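Progress narrative, work stream C.
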Amino acid sequence: MTHMPGVDQFTAALPNHANAYPAMGMLFQIAGSSSKALFDAQQIALLGHDADPCIAMAGQVGSQVKLRVGGSWLIASVRSLVLDQTNHGIVADIDFLGEGDEEALTGRIHRFRRGVTRYPTPGTDIFPVSAADMQQIYAADDRANIEVGTVYPTSDTRAALYVDSMLGKHFALLGSTGTGKSTSAALVLHRICDLSPQGHIVMIDPHGEYGAAFAGNGAVFDINNLALPYWLMNFEEHCEVFVTAEGAERTVDCDILAKCLLAARSKNRLAETIGRLTVDSPVPYLLSDLTTILSNEMGKLDKGTGTLPYMRLKTKVEEIKADPRYAFMFSGMLVADTMQQFIAKIFRLPADGRPISIIDVSAMPSDITSTVVSVLSRLVFDYAIWARDEPQRPILLVCEEAHRYIPSSSVGGGQAVRRILERIAKEGRKYGVSLGLITQRPSDLAEGVLSQCGTIISMRLNNDRDQAFVKAAMPEGARGFLDSIPALRNREAIICGEGVAVPIRVAFDDLEAHRRPASSDPSFTQLWRQSGQEADILDRTITRWRNQGR
């Protein structure tokens, strides 16, 4: 290591202004984003007893320090520390976050912004950042924002998320099971709803836990009231539902389905008004028409030759039509042209003070869930594309358990939903569609999707692979914060990207009981002490089980 000055040079006090703390170290190596500093171990020990929690934390991993460059204060985050025996100090890697102007009389920071205009030189003194400095650094500017918690380690500095920047470039909320991910997601969405009561938010809820949380300011749709018309599916989604064959047989079945589906759609009077009717056009048709056309096509063939694909398709269509579990989508009542009413209902057009739709897919048959999510996601995207010349109504699509629908594997079922969500991630912002991904397994997401998210809210992640995945997706300046991801407490998060001025560690606010999702962990010891009425519980449960209703 190159020779560095001893710690006796670090005790020079600041020039005369309100900040009375002496220098705690010195910069000795400078690079574009990450630099090296030498801290005075004795000075850090002294600061550790200060009443200000920010000063007391000075010099620790994840804390902030400041350096004066001309008339500005440069703020940096401490990423790593190592003991330096030669100089009796501590060598630290620091990452520059941004800069603020220095007030002439008080020496305080104001007008803080991201990025560095002018770098310091080796030998520049380093000072601790106080709670008053933190207030200035994290003070929200005039942009529309929501407050979600307090900045660590302060007790009163509020953490603000800039809504337009966060939604404009998508966001991801990550965290292992039990870290408070669902409550934090509900908190962020509630704050957005409170800010924009005429907004348009669609949330896919795979566990049925958000319905109760948004009963007051949203609409909840499940198998009982969703009434999703089957004819809104495009050809790819039809194939996922009706085609069961694999390999070469699948191609044959899909070709037959395309031909018969187009014929069924063309029977509708609407088809006459459409110049170019395709197999993807959202035109109503009767399932009975589809089976009749399949039968007629089969009748044209010589007996015993090539009728098997037609039989497979016809049997599957009739099976789904007769199965009560699929009635929310394939009921004979869903034949009318209700496209306008359905889109108005799901997209909250108008919102009337209830801007969020919770789509509870928990009671749907698992083999069709991904198709339902695919249809809803594609409707959001297609609506945005075809409404480009109209007054804009941006839509936020929030996907809980996102790794289910955007898996890293490009083979197997559910590829339609993977493709549309990947497309929204890449192109959505051009058309006013924002994507919010919530997942506990970021490493299982399709490659590239996480890097499309401009804002990342990362709660504690226990898995090494997940941590590495998130680090790869986050910007350079946030690296010091990322190392603390495994050490975060419940309902704490690192937020970085477009939605915040600089990366921050946040303790989320408490959410009122009636606004929380139904996702709390059961107390085994408490519940296992209770007994009685087991026969009635079983009777009611089995009735619901058999009726496939909740």
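Work stream C, second folded protein:
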Amino acid sequence: MRLRLVVLWTLYALLTSTANAQTIVGPQGERFTERVVARQLSDPWEVTYGPDNFLWMTEAKGYRVSRLDPATGTRQVLLDVSKERQFPRYDKIPDSLDGGKPWPQGGLMGLALHPQLLQGQPYVYLTYIYRFAGAQQPGNGSLPNHGGNFFTARLVRYTYDAAAHTLSRPVVLCDTIPASNDHNSGRLLIAPVAGRNYLFYSVGDLGAGQFDNGGRTNHAQNPNSYEGKILRFNLEPDADPNTQEAWLPNDNPFNTTRQSAVWSIGHRNVQGLAYAEIGGNGKMYASEHGAFSDDEINLIERGKNYGHPLVLGFADGNYNGLAAAASEHASLPGPWHTTYPTITSEQANAKALGATYRDPLATLYPLSHDFLTTVLTRTRRHDPDEPTWKSEAPSSLAVYTATAIPGWHNSLLIPTLKQGKLVRLKLRDDGTAVASDTIMYFKAPVRFRDLAVSPDGTKLYLATDSATVTSGPSEDAPKGTACKGCLLEYTYVGGGSAATPTVANRKAPSPEKAMQEATAMVQKLKPKDRRVKRAGLPATQRPVFDLLLKPTLTAEERARVQQNALALLAGLRQQ
């Protein structure tokens, strides 16, 4: 009887999910069905397709690891590490009771499955934040003068019992990884180097230089600190007598008299790590949050320097004279009131970093120097109409190596937080450059946190945040956020083109066309949004903006708008 009920329930779940599926058409004619696999998850952070054909998932705030059947949505909790957290759920406690203490960005974050998980190596690697230095301090627990919130993360290996479906026997690889309430990054990846697998972990710059961490020193360029780095660990301890060093590869690039996990430096907030063999060679890619612009896609190499906070995006000069943050706190250093250094010249900084410096493969999106100056200036004076800027806040990364969807083979897939979409970038055949323009899929009022792809490439699983905001460029949640804490399945059912959309050489629209587009953009804005957009424009463009709100224009006004339409449209597109 019990077996019969289970069978009936499974059939019901499958029929219901099929009936509720809806079809979405992609920009190249690809057709996908969409369905909700799971709901009400506690901020899913990592979702990984396992060798058992189940989805393995971490919940950032719930501190749980689960194994989920993608066909039925049935979920088993394998591990609850909330007891390891040495501070309470500050996000659920009123500020009047806890002094306004912060929740760390993330919590339980990365998960990586050993490549031989079901073949004699039953290991699962996790990372979570377990300590807050300010937990017993009065007030919000942060250091004075915006000196920062100091958390600590732990990297642990667990053993999977496939019969009992539990994770147990934790072994700590490292329990001194610095963390924060901002820019923790938190991705884990197992990838080979010279034929041997290693564990890679991304650590952000911990927001050092912005918001509550505005007075905290930024260590992204300091090779002796784990902040703003990608780290590399052994999957198994080596023969080093020092237990702490046994998990550190003896050939890591920044080993000196003391071994170090640092693999690459100069990172801001790497929330996406992925590896694939392309063109016969293995490549590791990373997606990284920019500051006010220039979200980065990087090709990660041993011992290389990715520039932050001295070069943001390409070394193209759009941040010259600026910094990676600004604040109204005059007690903080520099013209922009931040511990982020003022960038005199990106080009000079890149040259000074030398042969180890690497530009990104691509950025989303480089904004103009004039516009960035306007944003930082308004931030510094604490403008009541807070500035907005165009960015994506990439939250994860996968390399699509299957051939199921025409044209997708060897593409980077990038979920985003701010705009709620999946970005696809086609790679060149050797994997060393991007060959296409950005292609956008599944845009919705959600914050996509992570992505998993089925082995045959026909199903994409996207996890969404439960919370609507975090901080910085990703703070603006899509309006009308729907399906919080969900796992969504997109199944490819046909269509599409094998042609690669090449990087476009966009021709500037005619003055008439630019005026029409700018008018449509301005007139559909709500009053508050109009104030914000107007304030973000150079002073010379604001009177033209005002003209677009008039129901009719005189011949003289129309000529004036047409004369300035191209510049105005460019300014609006950056916001």
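The first strand starts at residue 22 and ends at 25. No further action is required on this item.
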